[in-house]
Structure formats: C-alpha cells, structure tokens
Amino acid sequence: MSANKRKYTQSLDLVQGKVEMAHGAGGKAMAQLIEQLFIRAFDNPALNVQSDQAMLALPDTAGLASGKIVMATDSHVISPLFFPGGDIGSLSVHGTVNDVVMSGAKALYLSVGFILEEGFPLADLKRIVDSMAFAAREAGVAIVTGDTKVVEKGNGDGVFINTTGIGVLPEGLELSTDQVRVGDKVLVSGSLGDHGVAIMSLRENLTFETTIESDSQSLDQLVARMIDRIPDIRCMRDPTRGGLAATLNEIAGQADVGIQLQEEAIPVKPQVRAACEFLGLDPLYVANEGKLIVICPKQRADELLALMHDHPQGADAAIIGEVFEDPNHFVQLKTSFGGMRMVDWISGEQLPRIC
Amino acid sequence: MKYVDEYRDGRLAGHIAEKIRLEARPEQQYAFMEFCGGHTHAIFRYGIPDLLPDNVKMIHGPGCPVCVLPVPRIDAAIELAVVHKVILCSYGDMMRVPGSDRRSLLKAKADGADIRMVYSCADALGIAQDNPEREVVFFAIGFETTTPPTALVIRQARQQGVKNFSVFCNHVLTPSAISTILESPEVRDMGIVPLKGFIGPAHVSTVIGSQPYEYFAEEYQKPVVIAGFEPLDVLQAILMLIRQVNEGRAEVENEFVRAVTKDGNMKAKSLVADIFELRPEFEWRGLGLVPYSGLRIKKEYGFYDAENRFSLIASTGRDHKACECPSILRGVKTPKDCKLFGKGCTPENPVGSCMVSSEGACAAYYSYGRHQQALNNQKG
Fold this sequence. Notes:
The complex is a heterodimer. By secondary structure, chain A is of the alpha+beta class. Chain A is 28% helix and 23% strand. Chain A is built from nine helices and 14 strands. Chain A has helices at 28-42, 45-48, 88-101, 122-139, 194-200, 220-229, 243-255, 270-279, 301-309, and strands spanning 54-57, 68-76, 82-83, 86-87, 106-117, 142-151, 159-169, 185-188, 235-237, 258-262, 293-296, 318-324, 331-334, 340-342. The longest helix of chain A has 18 residues, at 122-139. By secondary structure, chain B is α/β, with parallel strands linked by helices. Chain B has two domains: 1-324, HypD, alpha/beta domain 2 (Rossmann fold, 3-Layer(aba) Sandwich), CATH 3.40.50.11740; 325-379, no CATH class. In chain B, 39% of the residues lie in helices and 16% in strands. A five-stranded parallel beta sheet of chain B has the order 2-1-7-8-9, sandwiched between helices. Chain B has a four-stranded parallel beta sheet with strand order 4-3-5-6, sandwiched between helices. The mean pLDDT of chain B is 91.
C-alpha cells in the first residue's frame, strides 16, 4: 500500500464528498475508492492483494492443508438488460466465473442475489434466470444459494444481480502479478471492445445499427487448457471496465514494471474501430466480457499463442506487447503511425452501466 | 477502415518525416502553433513529436472549446441547473470543467441537479419535448463547427412551437482568437512565442472556408496551412509550413482540400447569420475579453435565449492562482511549466480547463506524453 500513497492527487473526501459515476467506471477514481475506503476498512492479506479474486488458504482441519480456494464477487447493473450476444443473467455468470478462473482455479459454485424492482415483468425475469442457468451449466458451475429482495418502483432499474463464485486452485499453481518479469510477453485472447460497443449501440440518444455482438462468455475451458499445458504462465486478467488500458495499468503498478504495446498487433474488429471512431472513443478503453490478458515468459509465448489459436475462444489471440523495466509503471504504445504514446488510466466515465 | 487508415499509414508517415528531417535547416528554429485541440489530440495520440527533429516544435493553441470557456460561464451553467432547476443538457466534455471553488457540472449532478450528457443539440430538444413540464436548457459551446447545428435546432424549436426549451449560448469565433494571439505582446514585441506559422483549423474551416485566414498571412506575415485532423494531415502540414518558412513565403495553403473550400459552407454560414449576432466582446479563458469574438442569439429568437429567460447572477469567479492555463492557451507556457501539472491537477481532479478535455494541451500531454517527460528527467 505504501507504494500507492502518492498515486492520487487528492485524498478521498469522506466528509463532504459524494459518490460520482466515475467511482464505478474502472479508472483511478474507482481504484482510489477501493484503496482508501474499502481496503482500509476490511484490511486483510487476501483482500489487500487487490486481485479480481481472493485466494484463501483452507484451515488444516478441512483436511486439505495444501489446497487453496478462490472466491470472487461481482454485481451487475447493466442497462439495457437484454443486448446482442447476451443479457444480464448470462453476464452475471460469465463475469464472476471469469474472475475466478483468471487465478487458474476451476470454478465450482455460485451464489446469486437478486434486487428486483416492483412491477418488473416476471416473463423477463424468467428469461434472465433461464439464461443464467444455461450459462452456469456451460461453465460447469452450480448456483447453490441465493437471495431475493424487492425494492419499490422507482428505486431500482428492473433487475440488479450480484453473484459470488467459489473455485479451487490446482496444487502448486500460483498465478500473480508478483511473478511478472522484465522481458515477459503480453497476449490477448481476441478482439477488443466488442461488449462496450454492442451496449453503446442500444443506448438512448446513441442508437446506431451494428452487427457487433457482446463477447460475453465464460473463459473456463480456454483457461483450463492454457494452464494445463503452460503452467508457468505469470498472470491472467479479464479486461472488463476500463478495457485493456485499465487492466494493464493495474498489472504494471502491482508488478512494478512498465509495459510496451504494439498498436498494429492489437486485434480490434473493423466495426468496433468504426464505431469508436465516430463516438470519439478509444477501443483500448472499451469494456470486454469474454477476453483475457495473459503474461507469460518470453520463450513460452509462441507456444501459448498456438495453443490459444486452437481453441475457439482464442482464435484471434495475439502477442501485443512486452514487459519492460520502468519505475514509473507506464503503459506505452508504439503507434502504427510510428510514434510512442502513453496508454493511461481512463479518467472519469466512458459510459456508465455496461456490466 | 476505409478513408481513415489511408491517413494513418505508418509507411507514408516515415516518408514525410524523412522529408521534414532533410528540409528543416539545422540553424533555423521552427515553432508552429496548431490552433485546434483536434490537432493537439492527434499530435499526442499518434506520437508525432517523436517523428520531428528537435528544431521543429509545436505550440498548442487555444482551439479547444471546453478550455477557453471562462469560470463565470461555468458558474452560470451550474446556476441554471442548481438554482433554476432546469434540465441542463451538455456535451460530455463540459461535465468536469471546474468553475469557482472547483465546482463542476459533474459534482452538481452528484448533488442532485438534473444534468444530462447529450451528443447533439437535437437530443436536448428531444428531451424538452419528452418533458413538457420542465425547463430544458442546452449548454451550447464550441467554435464555428458546432454553431450551425445549434442554429438549426433553435429554428426547429420555433417551428415546432416548443416553449420549454432554450439555449445558453457560448459559441465563439476562431479568427478573432487568432488575431488576439498575433496581437499579444508575447508574439509581437517580446518574441517569447517565436511563432513561425499556423496549422489552420480542420472542421472550422469546412464551415468558414480558407479565405478568412488570408488576412493573417498578409498582415502578420505568418504562413497558414489548413490541415485535416488525421496524423498524416498534420505531418504534411508541418512539411508545407517548413517549406514556406524556408522560401520566405507567408501564404494560406490548404492541405485539407478533401473538405475545405475557399468560401466554406455558404448554407451553414447563412443559417448562423440568421439566428446569431456578434457580441461586442466575450471573455475567453487565457485571452481575456476579446472584441467581437462571441455570438449571442438575435432578439428575434430571444425567446430561446436562456440568458433572457433566467436571471443569472454575474459570477466573479476567477481561475486558480497557480493555474497556468491562461498562459498555456496563449502558447506562452507549456504544461510542464505549470507547478500544478500532474501534482495538484490531473484529469481526475482538474484545476484548470486544459486538463479536462482530451483536446486540452495539459490533458493530452498528461495522458499521452508523460513518458517523454520521464525520459527527459532520466537523461537530465
């Protein structure tokens, strides 16, 4: 935590301040809220790692002294509830399963908490629940416990869903940003920005026609294959809110390194690029819900890439950059134009409620 | 992507950069101002400074509509939303611009004011039609590019008899800002800003044409090259400016021929002239009061003027004392000359307006160019 002390220019104003939309946008404001409020209050070693999931040692009495369980939670407030390529139900399974499996763990169980708004059509709720059930079956997880609350009309927006996932980590496997070394390669499992653009195309005042579908999917099978064959993978993350930029800045900070990317190598679908172009967005900052970033030793990168290419969830995978020594923890991009630039954290919100 | 990738081709960029290196004379210092924030953004986003020799420098001009709006106008917009309880519709860029006491539209929104981000003035009119019981105000900002759409919507509002819609007009004019920079003592007498020429606006020029710049080229003997917002446009314009300087010419040249004509868009110009008139003077952040540089809604359409409809308190808010935005907007200082840069002032917590919009020099420099500063520190 001490290294993070000077990261923010102003400390969080816990007396006069108000929750702003930026506090949920995946950028620095959100990181600051987490560090200066939540982590200080809940302080414990598993949480302080600040990963997408917590790795928990089991007490000896459980008879599994060497094993670790992995736990992750995610709340979903996406608007609209139904979108091309998915809905809030499937997303609430995919999001949490992905957070669990990025540690290398196998996801086993989910809990679900529904916050429903009075007046919400049960037919829509059934669609959402059926979609969750299907997504859970596909990912091989069981939804084993739940909770339902209803708020008065006007106090919610249809449905909010929280899911918590539990998985187990294969013995001996330890993926973490601590493992990242200078010279390592950075890979992405497929094209960036699909989810964010699919959601934006449906937004009020912004409706545009596109064939882009959200990439929302559970990455459990791809991950299982990757860690089975290349267990010396350093770390994995799913670039959701704040996109690739936020995820890599997070990794660079935690691993005490810099990262350099090649713009030409980063896969972005032409439709996504076009939409970003006219909306004034940068695909590197747009959310994904079915992609992963993986960092691996240089000498294993080609093998890992070939392995990912052989799986449908990694068909468009690419090596996009490399880890460098940099005390500033900068993520930099060699533009296809020939210059260098920084890829900073997103500031403020790009678009609220995309997950 | 067709018609876009052609203008971002790294191979062609290499060729032009090579010509710039060959033609820029080592004994000569070339300092050019890109007026527009769109150019500033392109320069940083594509890493253009890396492609230029050390004696070719870009000075970032005031052409970012968000950056030049002074504190009292932001205060007035916040007042409309908070005190007069209107639905205030604003372009997203304006949301974080600090007014007095670091208040912003975003903070006012978190406090409960009904402030909505829109992509166009037409969306604001739509919100007015959907909420007939509420007053809806569009916070109009921008140069000649965003003015015609505002004019069109005011005309539509009248045609459709929409009574609960008005516009808080802050539209400003490019040529008067360029004049002010060229007339400033820093450029004219003191030589603090060794300006050798301008990259002329892209989108603004599609509306006003290339003709208005002829005066600057002639009167002040400064070459102007109008350029598009793509990185190859910018690089090509820099080469054209270097050639003019080398040949002792001061002309208006048009690199952006695919969109800009001599006379511009006559239809848009007449639409604007129909709805708006010149204010005798308008305050700019950085430039102060500039004569005949802003537009207001004509009396005939005064019903749609939010400044008529609501009585607004004249705010006396000023910029933060240590903020160098005013000097940065005039090209006298660079972001790294500011004590607040990256310390008290970041995109998350901006003190000055240049740190807010992605077109602002400080934000572009902070988000895209900070690695160069770190590199220089290491070297130095």
